[in-house]
Amino acid sequence: MNRNLQQEELLRIATQMNLEFRFPAGIHYERFFRELKETGRIMGVRCPECKRVLVPPRPVCGECFVRTGEWVEVGPEGTVIAYTSIYFPFIDGSTGKPRSIPYGAGLIQLDGSFSAINHILEEGDPGKLHIGMRVKAVLKEEREGNIGDILYFKTIEPEE
Amino acid sequence: MNDTRENMILPGKVDLPFSYSAGKTASRFFLGLRDHKKILGKRCPGCQKIIVPAQLFCKECFVETDEWIEVGPEGILLTFTVVYRAGKHQPISTPLAYGIIRLDGADTSIIHLLGETDVSKLRAGMRVRAVFSERRKGHILDIQCFRPV
Amino acid sequence: MGKRVAIIGTGQTNHCSSREDVNEMELVYEAASAALMDAEMTIQEIDAVVLANMELFEGRALPDMWCGEGAGAFMKHSFKISTGGTSGTSGAISGYYHAASGLFDTVMVVGFEKHSDGNTAAGMALTDPFWDRHIAAAAIGNFALSVSEYMADRGVTKEQSAKVAVKARRNACNNPHAHLQMPHLTVKEVLESPILAYPIHRLEMCPQSDGACAIIFASEKIAQKKCPRPAWVRAAVTRHDHIYLGEVKHRLATMRSLRAAAKSAYGIVGIREPIKEFDVAEIYDPLTYAEIAWYEALGFCRDGEGGRLVDDGITQMDGELPVNPSGGVISTNPVGASGTIRVAEAALQIHGRAGKRQIPDVNLALATGYGVYCWSDVIILSSKPG
Q1: C158-171 helix and C288-297 helix, angle to the nearest 10 degrees
Q2: Measured by CB atoms within 10 angstroms of the end CB, which terminus of chain B is less buried, N or C?
Q3: ipTM computed for the complex
Q4: Which residues in B lie closer than 8 A to residue A15 (C-beta atoms)?
Q5: A interface mutation test: which of C124, C130, C256, C289 has the most A CBs within 10 A?
Q6: pLDDT tens, residue by residue, C93-146
Q7: Domains, chain C, ordered by start
């Protein structure tokens, strides 16, 4: 057989992976999502040992390793403790397409909560974002019972 | 908790492109199918087996294969099955017959589709022959299926 | 403590953005063959194989099964380790445990990744479905959150970050295996490169590479026989923190998992002043700011002084503690192999076989692994068995 390495065509096998999943929320998280969907309230849970309020509402406090107890309403306002603005069109795995860029994202510590949640910020310009700024959750009109029921967090002007 | 309430299920979806490099050896194998309708294996200088599809190295001896050898296009159907119920992601509709084929001249076997026949006529041990697709692109499905001889 | 174990051979592919000429299994075969040649061994002399890969990125289930034969796993005791970014170091640690148990005399570890086959969106698309997927900004987005926090916590400047990128890509020029080799890179160029996720510039971030790296661990008896200067494993520690970013505030500044792993590892070996006692460090730096944060977490300096270490050139090739002579992850990143490469590079330094990137007189080397978002591995290698 003639082996002419320079002219060898190198092939790639292309595939599109299109998969569907279903994730039962479980009794515990379901309470969070139902409350969000039906009343628009954001709930956290308190660890009976360290007394911290956790959002997402973990069924077990990771640091104390005990079951969390009391459900507590948090937010809807909070403080940005970290932020970024995404400029690169990463593919959103659930749609196969990139989001429209740039868009803001941040860690938001909701009032009353110890931990912060990871979510979209309405403000996409990093020049207008800073650590410590106050934001408020903006909810969808028609909610489904998932984290996307919070559309994004919008900047709230400081009160004089 | 209310036991009769419906549980909340979050639907998830992933839709992502992947593109796997075949490597020099597999590329030559696929090009053999595409351009010459030939099925190629390679010999292991250690155990002397003709490995099909062609591989860069013998997995058992852990040495590089050397000589390219044409095999088939006929061979023996070692075993087969017929699938009557397909999953969402399978490329062909049911009933789907496929089997393990030892091509003439090969020491390893390939898994491939069986077609151009009534599935009831399939028998382990029967001779089969590769049917090449009209439109080939350098892919295992350049062999459309194997049919009984 | 387990039995004495040393690294006696390593092998790597030449990492790059896309290897069209091999498939993933053949990539593994290349690294494994190179390591066997380095150690002057045959595959028959290997008792066990550990494979490390982050399969989500390539959309390939069971990479140990489909690619492991490239590492000679056929009819051998073989395991896959998949722990995200730390896969490579976890794999090395697993290889060490196999040998340290006394049950296996020789173990080959191969870390590998073929990024060009897949995309990181795959890995990030499959994060927690309830709390994390909706951002869809890959690892960079979530890292950027931590960076903005870190800059506020420590006052690290953009220029300091860019200097780390310059050091990495210039060091990479001495490493024939490195992916991004940029001999003339400047701070200005780094800061003018496009922003991926604020405030991270493209040139501050690691690339995605196709590559594999193999390491051979051996028991004392075999190491003494086969290797003129074995790299003895003195400590191997791993620690995991929460993964959800909102549950670890001031993540980079506190980097609890790395501090805890380092404390434990240093305690095992008796290290009190890492910057003086280590001769070289290969730390897992996915981006520039992380490297600075790791200096603090590893105790190379006090908190808040990471930037100063950069400005003073302490971690340059001719500095008090050279960090990443190989170019680091910032220059080369086949994720499943990136951690293995840190251990291999640290071992090469002790072996005295690091070529142009060799630091003189290396007796104690540090290697670390990092995984999105809060996992840390610390491995200490020495020219002495201890």
Answers
A1: 100
A2: N
A3: 0.86
A4: 17-20
A5: C130
A6: 999 999 999 999 999 999 999 999 987 777 777 788 888 888 877 678 888 999
A7: 5-120+208-226 (3.40.47.10)
